[in-house]
């Protein structure tokens, strides 16, 4: 259940729609140790320093717009993942319970020896759980994590700009 | 059935003492510094995902889960298999649906999650009330079960006094663990427990299969014969009956378990101690893997108990079959008094004992944290309490909760209170689950909606439970000789879960209508904190 290949995929190799983001300076392991991306902060500091002299509110507004868009992308990515995984898990279980209750003949049908269809499906659900959890971890890492990282960076940046203004 | 030599008894006692000593030592050494709140509530955020996952699994697999699930499988076969599947699935659902936003939104307790957009004392008090009403029944059922279980294990004559002493001993230990160890100490204990539990279960399951030459068909055939039910053992309906209402009751119970068990505060509390989102995801993967493995093992053990012990002996010892695993280990050990029998029985008894201790300690801690953090620090002191004071209060509320639980358990020790487990799960599914899902995913949720969900869902579950078939009107009920049942089911989820969701929705609609400014403010707060909720951005 550990992902040995955690973070091995660079964000661009995922096949998911990528947010418009500044070049990232993440090392292969930086996510785990530095969840708020402070190490990329320093790299971005130079270009943004010159922005400070430009009419800042324009860039600030631009920033918040981008931030809102990023958040919306992240929200819908999360929602999609959540819906697919939850509905699949809950749906299959509800079907299983309803069949057990209202189609006892079908679920009692013997497959091999004493093993009935109902028992086999129950044990199968438990076994499939391992695969489902693995799939969830993998998909979340590909679809949600890069977006979340972008949002975090942008929040840190806008927060700093606001600080300069105030 | 439980006639074994005094040598076994001595071994079991020595094992218990060793377990208590070792875990107490670890609790004291791992205990938090005196004035560090984060340390007490979350344990420094320092656990690796594997360890945190094991701790979540340990909290999740309570003594009630282990013993009653095994018992239901042994006595009712198929119904028990479905229960094992729904138990595992509940944690999966928590992982898929809520674990990550919950970790981002929460700090120490459920009140922190719920109150993040709706500051105010009413929300904190409601969160605390629901936390208590979900954990206390669970505590009482396990403590009062501890009395009869320990007298059974140690083969003490079934005197009321002996049981009370057992309850008080287990209860006092539980208070010490919770008050001294805090989150970190109980996490260590849960890890030890889950390792022992899995190890012993693997051995017992392997011995069962070995007895039948690793042929599942033979086990099932013997279980059908041993249960005395024949082919009905492998069909739905032995547990609750086969009439239309009973079948609906069964389906409702399973859905309630799936929605309710994983939402209980003592489990969600462990999520806040993960360091970041990938860590919580990996922790949950480990936890789900562990729990699923255990559910597969408990299926084998329960079926083995039906096959090798037989339902006649199991129900003679306990009508709910909670001693079936212990009896199975006696049968598997071979000749009475032999070394193998002693070792196996002691191992299983030790596993049951540590499971019992750690699960009651975890629940006490959850209840005490909510009292100290939600009720004292935020509702009474309006968030102005000193960390040191809050920690002292947390330690003392552990004592208070524990004492209350001990008192209640000794009061009901002669009753059949298994229904309290169902009550706790029903409150989890009808009050906690709607409140958390709305609070995390619906920006239109308002304070009135939240209070309506928490109080309405919990009250609906409680009321229906009092007038259900599980409390009166049937021979297996709490009051078998009285009959005031109006609700013809054993669990209330079918009505109380929709009621909880509906109450939250209606309450929020009411706020939109009557207090538009307030509900706009709630929406603004939700949107403001959304970056934190979804991306852990500060």
From TrEMBL, chain A:
- Quick one: where's region Disordered? 1-32
Which keywords has UniProt assigned to this entry? Membrane, Transmembrane, Transmembrane helix
A Pfam short name: DUF485
Task: Note the superkingdom of the native organism.
Answer: Bacteria
Key word Transferase present in the record?
no
Q: Which residues cross the membrane?
A: 84-105, 117-137
- Organism whose genome encodes this protein: Streptomyces glomeratus
- Name this protein carries in UniProt: DUF485 domain-containing protein
Automatic annotation (TrEMBL), chain B:
Record bears the keyword GTP-binding = no
Tell me what topology the record assigns in the membrane: Multi-pass membrane protein
The record's listing under Gene3D superfamilies reads:
Sodium/glucose cotransporter (1.20.1730.10)
**InterPro entries per the UniProt record, alphabetical:** Na/Glc_symporter_sf, Na/solute_symporter, Sodium:Solute_Symporter
Segments crossing the lipid bilayer? 12-32, 53-75, 81-102, 122-140, 160-180, 192-212, 250-272, 284-309, 343-372, 393-412, 418-441, 448-467, 487-506
Family listed? Belongs to the sodium:solute symporter (SSF) (TC 2.A.21) family.
What is the recorded name of this protein? Cation acetate symporter
Q: Which organism is it from?
A: Streptomyces glomeratus
